[in-house]
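pls design
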């Protein structure tokens, strides 16, 4: 179950970053759902890692807190950018803020050891 949660976390990341690259200069629906998926699957992963001893996981809570903060910002910018795009306005900086912060979270996830 934990590994399936990791798979959905990686697919959410693919939707978020892929949606950003494909949808520029506007935020598209794929990107918004990717951002939402990252928040949900990330919290599920930490919940399982903390509560199931046999997984042998001990997540670094400083790293997780930074990722959570960045992911909340990504989701906020994606939601606001998508809302604006639906009303016919393109807020280009919001697209780039969400996309760049998403890539920052990939870097934190993999390089912060
Ligand atoms: C924009 C949002 C996010 C992105 C792009 C992202 C990206 C990633 C990536 C690429 C990995 C795999 C790292 C590796 O195996 O080396 C990962 C793992 C992980 N992420 Fe995230 N993440 C995001 C948000 C979150 C949030 C909000 C949480 C928790 C509150 C979280 C918790 C975790 C955990 C616990 C793992 C470790 C899974 C494991 O290998 O056991 N992530 N994340």
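designed seq:
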């Amino acid at each position: 179950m934990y590994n399936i949660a990791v798979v959905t976390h990686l697919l959410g990341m693919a939707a978020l970053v892929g949606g950003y690259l494909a949808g520029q200069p506007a935020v598209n629906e794929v990107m918004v759902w990717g951002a939402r998926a990252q928040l949900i699957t990330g919290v599920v992963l930490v919940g399982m890692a903390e509560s199931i001893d046999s997984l042998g996981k001990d997540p670094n809570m400083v790293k997780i807190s930074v990722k959570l903060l960045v992911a909340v910002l990504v989701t906020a910018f994606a939601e606001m950018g998508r809302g604006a795009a639906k009303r016919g306005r393109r807020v280009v900086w919001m697209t780039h803020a969400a996309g760049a912060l998403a890539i920052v979270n990939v870097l934190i996830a993999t390089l912060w050891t």
